[in-house]
Queue: 4 jobs
Job 1
Amino acid sequence: MSHPASLLAQWRQDVPASVVVALVALPLCLGVALASGAPLFSGLIAGIVGGIVVGALSKSPLSVAGPAAGLTVIVLDAITALPSFETFLLAVCLAGLMQMALAFSRSGLLSEFVPSSVISGMLAAIGLILILKQFPHAIGYDGDYEGSFAFLQPDGRNTLSTLWAVLNQQIVWGALIIAVASIAFLFWWDKARPKEGPLRFLPGPLVVVLFGVGMNALFGFAMPGLAIQTTHLVQVPVASNLGEFAALFRLPDFTQITNPAVWTIALTLALVASLESLLSVKAVDELDPQRRTTNKDRELLAQGGGNLVSGLLGGLPVTSVIVRSSANVDANAGSKLSTILHGFWLLASLLLVPAVLNLIPLSALAAILIATGYKLAKPALFREKLKQGWNQFVPFVATIAAILFTDLLIGIVIGIGIGLMFVIARNFRPAISYVQDGSEALVRARRNLYFIHKHELQTALNRVPDDVDLLIDLSATQFVDFDNIEILNHFIRGAEYRGIRVVVRGDLAERTAPKIKAPRKEVVYA
């Protein structure tokens, strides 16, 4: 049982962090719902479920789940193709059950095969996207929805052309003033935040939001020309009573359970959401200052449970989301309590103060996301990857470029492909060395041996002459695959008839299977 003092310290750390995450999550939930062609309230339901349900089931201390921009195209096409939104909700429930089945089949280990350079590239790309996508919102342009990661936008522009367009149109100076002041404060607060006293618990993003609301009220009173219009404010559905609030929830249409399209969409959602969640959780583990490792199968179970509940309540599908999670890390969260509490804050704000939420300028929230993006894509990260060598730097940069000019999932697939090319190329470098000095010969494996090394190993063994003492050195290997072991066994069996005395060095009995056979007395293990 935890000591009361440590529990109190955890609450002091996680409560402010949860407020920050809720502020970041609010516009993203609305933006993803809008882009998906779904009711705005369905995005908020997904955000609440991602916090409370997924947060409670997951073992990840810092990951935050919610509606994801990476699923918007799939969700939009699904809602359009199916008879009703309620039918789509049934597909979300089925997707959750499929994810839970994937968890029990231990599919979470697939994320371990993604190169670290690709994960780093994904984080840096998301940081750059946040900066590029939020800049227009910071100066009052809302042509693209909050939370968009796609290069091509619904308004016909792309990420780069939008930047040029907004600089050539009339700037909303009130939004720009709030954004610039907020960004400056956030960077200053990161350095000046006191280490002791009550102010150390004050989250900078909360100050930014309150500043934005207060400044816009001041503009409206004293300088109407700078006042921000409602189109550039948060727009949360407002219910005047509990009856209207309850009516915002939708239920799945279970009569469509035999519709083949429902199952096809459910399978698509389950696979894509699982992939995005696994990659996000792995990335968050790398951001964790304590370097804790999340159980990936348990994460799939949590995500599946979240999608089941979200679908039953009328919400969008959920995944683990990097933007919210990185905001959670930046806010110094220490446990999943922050994730769970952020869901409760979203729910409480919708029940108690929805009209107050609609006073928050999007430019203030854009400032928070721009600051978060900079922390994910600091120049120091690029210098560090370059120092690690081209085999790390090239997949890193390629992943960034691919994500920037396509979308998150396509970019990750491209990054993994380029990373695998480097792995294969590295393994095609000479792995076997052969040396002979008089009556002594050496065949040494420099690293693990796979099927692609069969020809190289056979060529080295073919160079061994008769009547020599041969040392086969496998001490540098941790794995030798079956094909190469068979080649070694075949050579060792014939060595007696050629007068070759063989010594095999390396603890293969413990580190490989099957064990190299030694049928002749001339074969000695060192």
Note: The longest strand covers residues 432-437.
Job 2
Amino acid sequence: MTERAREKWRPSLGLIIFTVLASVATLPLVGLFFFRLYDNQLIHQTQAELIAQSRVLAAVYAREVEARLNDGIILGAEIPPEARTDRQDQMTPIRPALDLAARGDLLRRRPDALAANVPASQAYIEIGKRMMPIILDTQKVTLAGFRILDPRGVVIAGRDEVGQSLAHIEEVATALQGQYRAALRIRVPDKIPPPIYSISRGVGVHVFSAMPVIVNNRVAGVVYTSRTPSNIFDHLYQERGKFILAGLAVMLGTIIIGLVFSRTITRPMRELVDRAARISRGDRDAFRPLAHYGTREFAQLSHSFLEMAQQLSRRSDYIATFSSHLTHELKSPLTSIKGAAELLLDSLQSKTDNLTRMEQKNFVSNILGDTERLEAMTQRLRELARAETAPHCEHTELAQVIGGLKSRFPTRAIEATGCLERSIGMSSEKALIVLSHLTDNAIRHNAKHVRLEAVDGDATVRMTVSNDGDPISEPNREKIFDAFFTTRRDTGGTGMGLAIVQAVMTSHGGSIRLVPSDTGVAFELQFPAA
């Protein structure tokens, strides 16, 4: 499972940043293709405008026809009862419904006008002349095409095709029966459109709207309007120089963003990866700070990583040194035990006693002494391992620890003063190990009195442990916390006591140091406050 996770392909940070920047840079181009989604909206907007304009002209047309009803003006087809609007309805809106994607709505190019079988009557010709100024003024503003038809579909007003018939056109035929109808028709442009127009289907069509004019439930005529839907591409093409500059600005912005990403993320990340590889090869120079961090978070990450790596390196060096010392310390008693055992075995196998009774007793005593030393050293190693374990919500009162210390050394004069009721962030067992080793060391160096003084601080409890025993020589003051350093090797000293004390204090966030003293020896302990 681990091997699979290592072999699985994963994108690099640089590839991800490049992909994001490329996506951002191409968004304006991709957006052009999404303009096609607006085609229907533009067509609906155009149809709605034509409906509104046609309805106004239809109302004017209807008033003109109503004014001539007494003169015998002829109306067209009667609207069936089911198609008539209810007079009580205050609003009868016509909603745009053309759909560019629907096959039934998109028709071929509008057929040409035909010659009228029966010309328009004089009454309708007069109505057309009266409406012509209104049509021209409206067309100047709306840019739509207007044609006013009589009940037979003959054009009576408009710029073109006056006097000709449009009754054969589908939407006009439907309107002559009293029903509104609109259609999309393929448009033949007056000039070749710009290449960008190929992106949109909406710019190649014309919207036609046929609005019937109803008078007394009969068709009095049709307002036939047309217009090309609005499109954004004409504006884009006309302003192509500005849009090219905008594209260059997007590219420049993308490059700047890429450089910022490279400066603040990619480059520091690569340098940190390189440092990790150098540290794994044992390069001690790799622990120095990075040349550039980029961001605050990455600086924190780099500092934490390098600090962790340095601690692991120091730990590795400590283990290597400790192993070397331990091998040396174990070698002497083991060699002594082996030599004594071999001499005793030779004496037992020999036909004549090579060793006297006293010599055999001495060899056995040496073996027992070395065994006791190995046993003491093993006990100290267990204490050292236990001392280096991380604490978990430990706390105890100093008074309880002092009571345990006096019970362990009942024959010694131990005096304790200060804030003994204060709780420290350490278990009573480990605190007792610390004070017991210091007291035992003092007794073994001829101390008669041991004095402990605790002073309360904000986050720590400072305790001074002093005694009136033999002072520590100046050359040895720098070595006393080293593992296996001892001046009592001939009397069974292991040199592990102060190393254990320092390990316990360090693992709990405290410290110990040797302080100057006029008589004897004094240590200053900094316990973390609970």
Note: Residues 296-349 form the longest helix (54 residues).
Job 3
Amino acid sequence: MKLPTDLVRMYKEIHGWVGIISGLALFIAFYAGAITMFEEPLQRWASPPSRLAPPPSLERTPELIEKVLAAHPGAKKGYDVNLAIDSARPARVSWVEATPEEAEHGGGVTYYASLRPDGALQVETRGPSPVAQFIDVLHQQVGLAFLDHEVAMPIMGAVSLLYMIAIVSGLVVLLPSLVSDLFALRIGRNVKRMWLDVHNLLGLFSVPFHVIMALTAVVFAFHDQFYDAQAVAFGRPERPERSAPAGPPPPLLTPAAIVAKLQDQAPGFTPIVLDYSGRPDGSVFLRVAGTDPRFGTRGPTYGFASVDPASGEIVSSDYMPGRQDGWSATITSFFALHFGSFGGAPIRWAYFLLGLAGAFVFYTGNLLWIESRRKRERKAGAVEQTRSTRVLGALTVGVPLGCMAGISVTLAAAKILGFAATPGLHSVIYHAVFLAFVVAALVRGAARAGPELSIAAAVAMLTIPAASLVAGPDWFGSPALIAVDAVAVGLALTLAASARSARRRRFAAPRDSVWADPGLNAPHPG
């Protein structure tokens, strides 16, 4: 396809600058996002075994609920009955008690309850590891986990808009050579050409995935603003006022009866959690979280149905997989495409690989921009890279490797420290490792830091299987948990190979390249 040269040159400039501005943030978002595709297995891997007594049967759960509400009146505001018990949901009943300020920011103390063999109530506050949630926040906030959610999300939205511009401009740049360069992967002495081929190949064949990620991320970031604008333009939908009950609230069905009623009404829907919320008038609202493998879900893992707790009848299926109307199903499809919450394990593995490939696209994009800058500066008479280019080269090494190492070390800490690993501690560990890598890259320079920090990141990655060994046999027992260690070993081997390549580049690159060590490299003609 023939396009005017000036147009292609302009879009190439746009693609380069937009990529440089947003690339490192997008690397963190994609790498952390790839990991969150297996958030639940990761949480099971990281969470220590519960010290609670085995959960009572559903038939005995009403007895447990009665004792919880009597001993902890705060649970009347809302509690969960967990139908699937594992390290992520270690108790049959759980609830959160929080001050209004804590509730506004999603804080508070989570309690978990069971019945001892003698029927006595047993309660503890030590639950599943928060490390998976911390990594998800890194993904959502493009690495800005230290900022409040309300501050970080508009920044994420701006980065996503730049990301969309990069996709469009990249396609325009590639169109003139699309046929000749489509499957080209020229591996040889011209390293820049090889990186360009890898960048184009990965980017082009994952364009639909990247378009979905960019558009849905913009919607997530500016969700409230979109709804406010819609309200201004069309008005807010009026909801009928709920009349107060004439008498005392009707008795609630038992959890076992609720599950049976749901199976009759929606045979393919598997309930996971019964979420009870108390209303000011004394009535109870019930939302059931669950899955149906035949359909995508509105959330990363579950869909939801509103159920009458007194009759067991489904009263709202707007978020229930398989029972939505056309509009709700269309909206859910956008969420499902972003979360990969459809198609089961094959889709999650595909999204995991696409996420890692996307992170690599942003990394190679920075490499290409730096090399293009070197040639431009050489034509202008410069004999070495400018300070700004050297700093960008160091950040291109330090930020991705620091992100990978920081996540690895905080994951290992979750397993070794167990209940002592709080969300705040995970944040401290991650940011300390991340900043150490970034500072080391800036001090050592891109050429020296490349092989050194790649080895350091590989060692950090190996702390994950090492932590599994230290934690002991109670931490093993399922293929999903073993897969966490296997993936970590695979990524560590990849980083070790990258260190070897970076070391060769350090000696062989042209002297005016940021990837060359001037103390080791003689002047190079080209």
Note: The radius of gyration is 26 Å.
Job 4
Amino acid sequence: MRGARHAGWAVGATAVALVATACGGGATSGTQGGVLSSSWGDPQNPLEPANTNEVQGGKVLDMIFRGLKRYDPKTAQAQNMLAEKIDTPDSQNFTVTIKDGWTFSNGEKITAKSFVDAWNYGASLKNNQKNAYFFGYIQGYDKVHPAAGSQSADTLSGLKVVNDRTFTVKLNQKFSGFPDTLGYVAFAPLPRSFFSDHAAWLEKPVGNGPYMIDSYTRGFQMALTKWDGYPGTDKAQNDGVTLKVYTDSDTAYTDLLAGNLDLVDDVPAAQLRNVKKDIGNRYINTPAGIIQTLAFPYYDKDWDRAGAEKVRTGLSMAINRKQITDTIFQKTRTPASDWTSPVLGTAGGFKEGLCGSACEYDPAGAKKLIQEGGGLPGGQLKITYNADTGSHRMWVDAVCNSINNALGNDRACVGNPIGTFADFRNQIGQHKMTGPFRAGWQMDYPLIQNFLQPLYYTNASSNDGKWSNTQFDQLVDRANAETDTAKAVSTFQQAEGVVRDNMAAIPLWYQNGSAGYSERLSNVALNPFSVPVYNEIKVG
């Protein structure tokens, strides 16, 4: 999700407008027909599975791709999708057998090679894929994606095609949770056209999910249509989805109330007081595997100096989480007391109170710690956030107000808005942050590992602030190698303790998924990732 935007992505606006006109009227087809419209934001990059790790692009990929595993839309448990079975004798060597009868939407048969070629592409340094890190446990990754210098191999030595329906995976260490990661979109299969005519594929991606992309114009909308030949059991219960781009969530909500939009999957904070009155039981508020944090730019020496951990911990203690979640978010958020999510459950690694006093509101203690740590770098804190979602401004202002009150200085903390999510992410990727910045995390798969390793492991794919700690890395490696689930979780929690002791990021609150929908729709739900289960929605 960091990197240059590809100019070739857009298609003609006239074509999209024609699609929208044809679909937007709600014409039905059979008993399950109709096209629904939903709020959306432009993805940062073209929709390559291994190059998309932000929410908006992920929504589309979840509609047009299916992988070896799929996370249950109610429980988030990993279940076999294209995988018939995944066997291992030792948690390091895996044999994957895929189901017969699956094809891409262009008719091409999906084979073991469809997965192996896709994973090799995603891992390769020369392809500059943002999710390359997810292939890091496969043997040979250090050759195709070295930490420095040029790659010395083009393919992962740990991947071998046995026959059309079987391939083997050899990891560079034991990783008992590996099969459960394979529902993440980076591990999706890819058709031959992705490699043979990459530019054309980027213009109109071809996948194997229940929907196909019909057209897209950046800044306007994307039209997806139901794939009638989809071989899976989770077929689309509607004719398609039109994703409409909004740069302001309040406008999307207004369009919902006016009948110009069917689904808003992020009810803005300013509307939470009125949403039940506005749409009644068509409002959804359900727990999700999402945590909001404040991340820091450790590439800036002011935040990586000795004593800065006291400043960060003091800032955490200066934030009145309960007041903010109660008043601004109307209890659709819960104050965070660890760095994971309650969705995991205690057996899965959630540990309420792990943060301890560092996450408890204590303005006097906060001021003392910040002073002991040398004070705010530059004398003022600027919290950077994307301004295209109205609720971010509200909570950032509230956080700053809380910090200012604690420090007795009404200019100690200010918000620093950036116009769009894509621009915000680009600036983060280019290491342009000079102070804390919004860092929401939506789980890729329901493991404690996913809340820690991608965000805090040295050079991990979503370690935007470039925090690095050898003790943390070693504990994560130990946890991944542990075949006993309970012991693995306990070791991950030790690693989480290192995050706490250094206040690598400030945990703010756990987020519920919220959505509102029109009277045209039924069977609307959000999955534990806070994404609408589009294929189950019925129109009319």
Note: The chain has a mean pLDDT of 91.
